[in-house]
Amino acid sequence: MQRAIKTTSDGSKTLYISNLNENYHSHHGALQEARHVFIDHGLKRLNNYEINILELGFGTGLNVLVTIDEFLKTDKNHVIHYFTIEKYPVNEGEVKELGYDVFFDEPNMKEYNRKLHQCEWNKTTELLPNFFFTKYHCDFFDLKELELPKINLVYYDCFGARVQPDLWEKPLFEMVADKMETGGLLTTYSSKGSVRRILEELNFKVEKKAGPPGKREMINAIKLKTEEC
Q: d(Cα 24, Cα 148) in Å, to the nearest integer?
């Protein structure tokens, strides 16, 4: 895939795929979108001592960085296990040009950013104390074969349905649901009615939330017990 670097409205950068006419993040602001969708309406909603996060997909690593940033701000002594999937990894030059570490006050963020991109695929790395990171170099539809603990939080951050409609259909959502614990939360920038209906069919309680800048709504979905459906 041919990729180019673009600057979004909040000053943070994203990747643009010309043959798909698709950005990795909102052009209204990559950083503020990641924080709004996956931290404010995701991680901050959980109070678990130990949190298992599944991200689809890893991309530029920005969602990992905002998660580390929030993890370091908390006064709780807790543990995060972060699992992410990516078929088309970014390269070292793109990581450097994106330069996400400059947007965080944490002085070690540059080192964390380097480590998460350079660490070995399919192997768990302790990026920092109590933050365990595993990235899988595979297709999203290989999720069924991955050995994961029950997931508390899903960052559903696939490319949009316009360019990859199969990622927003029932088969992949079924695989994700099977990996989640009861009460687990799925958060996504999407607000599509078809996505809401699929999640409801899969026994999720779907909540509409205010979207990030440039988007009116987004979805949170909580996996219910069978008797709650």
A: 26
Rounded CA separation 86/102 (Å): 24
Which amino acid is located at 19 in the chain?
N
* Residues constituting the chain: 229
Note the pLDDT of residue 141: 97
Q: What pLDDT score was predicted for residue 77? A: 74
Contacts of 118 (CB under 8 A, 6+ apart): none
Q: What is the pLDDT, as a whole number, of residue 225?
A: 85
Quick count: other Cβ atoms within 10 Å of Cβ 165? 11
Task: Flag residues of the chain having pLDDT under 70.
Answer: 1, 75-76, 227-229
